[in-house]
Amino acid sequence: MKPRKICCRAVTLIELLCVVAIIAILMGFYLPAIGRAFGRVKTFLFGE
């Protein structure tokens, strides 16, 4: 009997850290913009 080859490619820790870093950078850019947009909607709806 021949041993079976396992051909699965795992995600390395470096790749995972890069993805998390990219998501964190994008969230840093978009969260303030989303907060300002909600503030405008609140002002428009409630006149505060």
Spatial shape: rod-shaped
Q: What class do helices, strands and sheet pairing give?
A: mainly alpha
The SSE order reads H
Q: What is the tally of beta strands? A: 0
Distance between the amino and carboxyl termini:
77 Å
- What are the segments in which pLDDT stays under 50 over at least 5 consecutive residues? none
Indicate the proportion of strand residues: under 5%
Average pLDDT over all residues: 87
Q: What composes the largest sheet? A: none
- How many helical elements? 1
Summarize the amount of helix as a percent range: over 70%
What is the CA-based Rg, rounded? Answer: 23 Å
Your description of this structure?
The chain is mainly α. Helix content is 71%, strand content 0%. It contains one helix and no strands. The chain has one helix at 13-46. The longest helix is centred in the middle third of the chain and has 34 residues, at 13-46. The protein is rod-shaped.
Topology:
Elements: H1 13-46
Quick recap:
Helix content is 71%, strand content 0%.
Defining traits:
48 residues, mainly alpha
